[in-house]
């Protein structure tokens, strides 16, 4: 068996995404864990190959299709992955010589699929190498912009343009060219600088810096699996993307508050809320998936926290056993996930325009149902990891029409209050705030 390389790791990830519908980030973590002999540069290259090629995968496939006389419908996942990686290297990684990109792909296909398929691959890649050479004087950024825009479904380009404007839509997609950092949430923000220095000394080859919008955030590049670093096992910090931290803090939970995390998932935001309300307050968590609530309890336990109660609830059906009233409720609703595209580029190829109407209806029903648990004068925060109007302003408008007891109100928690500049809604954008994309809205229950 050949020793793993950055390229072979990337090819394995692309095959799993292509064949099994797997999420690239989790598969990449697994593959890099198996290939421990790779140094930091090769690990970074593997990551760049995976994320870069997935962001322009439809464009890459289109280039291959142009030179495949019999089409590519019958090409197996192994060959498809190798071809895509080679074409990505030819057009977007100028530091990789063209002959090396072609030969590595052809050799891998010959070993795995035999000589006839490798001859097909060689013919296609040689033609594309000539085309790439003819475009070598073009700006790499402009070439990447063209490929990213062409690889984004037409309906999504239109939806992003409606929400962000034409230039904003292109900037949103362009930011996905760079691999996003790993987000760390330091449990007590006053300890962030100390943990930053300690972690820097532990992984001197990595890049660590404070976040730009969350006072708890440290952003990490090139440190591998950070869960093995000092502080994680002891509960001093947790993994959480910076924008997600802002969502939890936007609730404005204070000591003594009764708070409900209505769509709690695995508990990142619930942990922020539980720490904010303190022992004198109460944090309850609900989710439609009972197994996620089990993981939530374990995660909070690692941090020395605990929910007062957990409820497996389908809010579309009703509130189930959750009959209490709350000072503050967070609804982090299921959504298209478009805002996470820089972290999960494969999502852009899997969503369809038809998904939006169903998701928006689901979001409205969850928000209306959960709002009944808010006390008069209490606060309700709605959040989605999407930037599309169909899942943001339009949902807010429909909920206000259906629930006269709700009104928009400025955020009660920083940094959302400051970022929104007193407005009751906020859009976090990767090209503006260096976070994933989110929409947040703050409601108040009329007294």
Describe the structure using short key phrases.
alpha/beta; Alpha-Beta Plaits; 8-stranded mixed sheet; 447 residues; Rossmann fold
CATH architecture of the largest domain: 3-Layer(aba) Sandwich
Assembly of the depicted chains: single chain
Write down the overall mean pLDDT.
Answer: 93
Spatial gap, N to C terminus: 70 Å
Class by SSE composition: alpha/beta
> Strand portion, in percent?
5-15%
- What's the story with the biggest beta sheet? 8 strands, mixed
Q: What is the strand and helix layout of this fold?
A:
Blueprint: H1 6-20, H2 24-34, H3 40-55, H4 57-66, H5 77-92, H6 98-113, H7 115-134, H8 140-151, H9 154-174, E1 182-186, H10 192-202, E2 207-210, E3 217-221, E4 237-239, H11 242-250, E5 258-261, H12 268-277, E6 282-287, H13 290-302, E7 309-312, E8 326-332, H14 347-350, H15 353-371, E9 374-384, H16 393-402, E10 406-408, H17 416-420, E11 425-428, H18 430-433, E12 438-445
Parallel strand pairs: 5-6, 5-8, 6-7, 8-9
Antiparallel strand pairs: 1-3, 1-4, 2-3, 9-12, 10-12, 11-12
Helix pairs in contact: 1-2, 1-3, 1-5, 3-5, 4-5, 4-8, 5-6, 5-7, 6-7, 8-9, 11-12, 15-16
Task: Give a description of the structure.
The structure is a single chain. The protein is an alpha/beta fold. The protein folds into three domains: 6-151, NusB-like (N-utilizing Substance Protein B Homolog, Chain A), CATH 1.10.940; 182-239, Alpha-Beta Plaits (2-Layer Sandwich); 242-445, Rossmann fold, CATH 3.40.50. The chain is built from 18 helices and twelve strands. It has helices spanning 6-20, 24-34, 40-55, 57-66, 77-92, 98-113, 115-134, 140-151, 154-174, 192-202, 242-250, 268-277, 290-302, 347-350, 353-371, 393-402, 416-420, 430-433; strands at 182-186, 207-210, 217-221, 237-239, 258-261, 282-287, 309-312, 326-332, 374-384, 406-408, 425-428, 438-445. Strands 5, 6, 7, 8, 9, 10, 11 and 12 form an eight-stranded mixed beta sheet that branches. A four-stranded antiparallel beta sheet has the order 2-3-1-4, with helices on one face. Strand 6, helix 13 (290-302) and strand 7 form a beta-alpha-beta unit. Helix 1 runs parallel beside helix 3 and helix 8 (140-151) packs antiparallel against helix 9. The N and C termini lie far apart (70 Å). The model has no long low-confidence stretch (mean pLDDT 93).
């Amino acid at each position: 068996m050949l020793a793993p390389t950055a390229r072979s790791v990337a090819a394995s990830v692309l095959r799993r995404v292509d064949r099994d519908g797997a999420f690239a980030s989790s598969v990449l973590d697994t593959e890099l864990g198996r290939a421990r002999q790779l140094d930091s540069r090769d690990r970074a290259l593997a990551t760049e190959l995976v994320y870069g090629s997935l962001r322009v995968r439809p464009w890459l496939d289109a280039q291959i299709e142009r030179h495949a006389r019999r089409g590519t419908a019958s090409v197996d996942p192994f060959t498809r992955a190798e071809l895509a990686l080679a074409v990505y290297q030819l057009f977007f990684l100028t530091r990789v010589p063209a002959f090396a990109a072609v030969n590595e792909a052809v050799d891998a296909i010959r070993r795995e699929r035999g000589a006839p398929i490798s001859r097909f691959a060689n013919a296609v890649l040689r033609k594309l190498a000539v085309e790439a050479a003819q475009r070598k004087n073009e700006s790499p950024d402009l070439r990447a912009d063209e490929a990213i825009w062409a690889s984004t479904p037409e309906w999504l380009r239109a939806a992003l343009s409606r929400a962000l404007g034409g230039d904003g839509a292109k900037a949103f997609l362009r930011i996905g060219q760079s691999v996003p950092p790993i987000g760390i949430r330091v449990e007590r923000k006053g300890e962030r600088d100390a943990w930053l220095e300690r972690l820097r000394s532990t992984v001197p080859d990595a890049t660590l810096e404070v976040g730009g919008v969350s006072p708890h955030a440290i952003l990490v590049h090139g440190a591998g699996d950070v869960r093995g670093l000092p502080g994680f096992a002891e509960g001093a910090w947790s993994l959480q993307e910076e924008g997600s931290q802002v969502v939890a803090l936007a609730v404005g939970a204070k000591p003594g508050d009764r708070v409900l995390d209505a769509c709690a998932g695995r508990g990142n935001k619930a942990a922020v809320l539980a720490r904010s309300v303190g022992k004198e307050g109460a944090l309850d968590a609900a989710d439609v998936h009972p197994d996620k609530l089990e993981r939530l309890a374990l995660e909070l336990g690692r941090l020395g926290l605990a929910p007062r109660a957990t409820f497996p609830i389908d809010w579309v059906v009703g509130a189930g056993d959750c009959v209490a009233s709350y000072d503050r409720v967070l609804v982090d609703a299921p959504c298209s996930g478009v805002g996470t595209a820089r972290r999960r580029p494969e999502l852009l190829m899997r969503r369809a325009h038809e998904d939006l109407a169903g998701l928006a209806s689901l979001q409205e029903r969850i928000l209306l149902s959960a709002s009944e648990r808010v006390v008069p004068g209490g606060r309700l925060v709605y959040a989605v990891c999407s930037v599309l109007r169909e899942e943001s302003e339009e949902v807010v408008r429909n909920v206000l029409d259906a629930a006269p007891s709700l009104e928009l109100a400025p955020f009660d928690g920083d940094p959302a209050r400051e970022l929104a500049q007193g407005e009751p809604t906020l859009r976090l954008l990767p090209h503006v705030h260096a976070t994933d994309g989110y929409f947040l809205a703050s409601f108040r229950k009329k007294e």
